Amino acid sequence: MASENVHATLSYFTMMQPSTSSSCTAAKHRRRSLWRLAKRLIRPIGGPQTLTISPKVAFDCGSIESSQRCEQLVPPVLLNVFEQLNIYDRIRLRQISHLSDFLCTTIPVRLPPMKLQSASNGELYLLSEAPELIAYHLIPEIDLSEAIGDDGTVALKHWHAELILRRTARRVDHVEHLWLETSINGLLCAAFLKELQETNTDSKPYQRKITLNKLTVVGNKKSDLEQVSKMICCFSAYVEQLRLRHMRVESSVQSRDLWTAISMCRRLRQFQYETCRYDRHSHFFLSDALANKNICTLELGGVEELCSVDLAKLTENRPIKHLSVVCPKITCDSYLEDSVVSALSQLDTLLIQCEVTYALDDLEQRQKVAKVLQNMKAEASLEVVHVVDNHAAQAARIMSYWLELSRDTNRKVMLKLSEISQDRIDQAIGRLIRKCENVLKAAFRGNSLLLTRGNGRVHVLDKYTWFGDDDDNC
Fold it and tell me: Quick check: 340 and 315 in contact, CB under 8 A?
């Protein structure tokens, strides 16, 4: 699948990789000839008179005299030349004149999803569907042929990653998904924003526009919220999916700036915000920042003072299909509030977390969970993260508990056992099947095991799987 994506990307960009063969040498000479031809064609039209000609007039030669037609035919010729060039040559041609920049916008430079991730050895790794596209055409002066692994990952130094983002800011039109999971997230964001600002300063009054559909930032020990907030603000007009994981908020000012930037993302459809420790500041700004947004997927975690009132504001009159709120003050009671119950009926998935102290024998608590399940659609599923103390007997009791709730309400439950080894999970499943005659191991689905008891259905995920990992659209 990855090879097909790479082939499609290479075909889209008409990219030619370096080679020592005679055919590639001929292709290189041909590209150089086209490059020289393009520069000769551009020079006569570099004057202000030609630049004032609108693109429609330049392409319409039907009513132009033959003496003028040669010059008017230059844009179509240039466009034909540009289509024969690889992405890097087109990027360089954009810098020559406003006309060449306009023509190149008809062939936009698009990057597939790109992930930069830190490794334990201190190096950075680039993961992309088309690593050759970035290695050979964004930073062609650096030989990365030996750094590209068999799995498509590219080993980079810190300054390599910084240079890639700088070149992206200056030369790329659209990035599908940018994923930053490094120890230098702040430095990378600052390098990108600085390069984009310098490019716009040099090209006034023409502003450089780069669009981004999805942005994922995984935080680290450093608090890079200032630069991350500026990055979000830069793409606020375009981003549709924003995921902020392992964030570290140290002050109310940082939190205010972050949520101000998020409030500007008017096209936001999927949003995730999770912290590495309890966030005491975001509840002041969160509900207002997410107001008037058609969010379908909302995932919040670690906001200490988030309460039922805030949850009601977040879900009221919203088209939310996937909801996950793991905060200290959000319990099953929160979902039974009158202002929140109506939102349950339209959910496809709801995620809750049960701590190790969760009382399995508490009848009142059990009834509340059953009410939450009954208020959900028949085809919806409840996703449960249940913390276990690494004992197979307790894990078996937890599985039995959720099987009974699923059977009583005729709703599907997805169960993720946390802080327990995979061996203990397997032992718990065997123990449950041996002790309960009506419990059946129905089938495997991806990395989950389906257990049934009458109408009850519980999918038990393995230790290394998260909800949605088996879905084709993830």
Answer: yes
Closest CA to 322 of 214, 471, 113, 114: 471
Query: Domain for residue 137, yes or no?
Result: no
Is 383 within the bounds of a domain? yes
pTM recorded for the entire structure: 0.78
Domain residue limits at 451: 348-474
Q: Give per-residue pLDDT as tens, 259-318.
A: 999 999 999 999 999 999 999 999 999 999 998 899 999 999 999 999 999 999 999 888
* DSSP reduced 3-state for 120: coil
pLDDT at 252 over 60: yes
Strands 270-279 and 297-303: parallel
- Is 186 within a domain? no
- Return the structure tokens found at 378: 């028949």
In the structure encoding, which two tokens stand for residue 71, read together?
A: 């010059």
Token digits of residue 470: 């088996």
Residue that the structure tokens 């599907």 belong to? 412
Residue where one domain finishes, among candidates 88, 105, 122: 105
Q: Indicate left, alpha or beta for 222 from its phi (over 0: left) and psi (-120 to 50: alpha).
A: beta
Q: How far is CA 320 from the centre of its chain?
A: 18
Amino acid sitting at position 188: L
Closest CA to 107 of 171, 56, 163: 171
Is-contact 300 306, C-beta < 8 A?
Answer: yes
- At residue 213 the predicted structure's pLDDT band, cuts being 50, 70 and 90, is very high
3-state per-residue secondary structure call for 188-228: HHHHHHHHHHHHHHHCCCCCCCCEEEEEEEECCCCCCHHHH
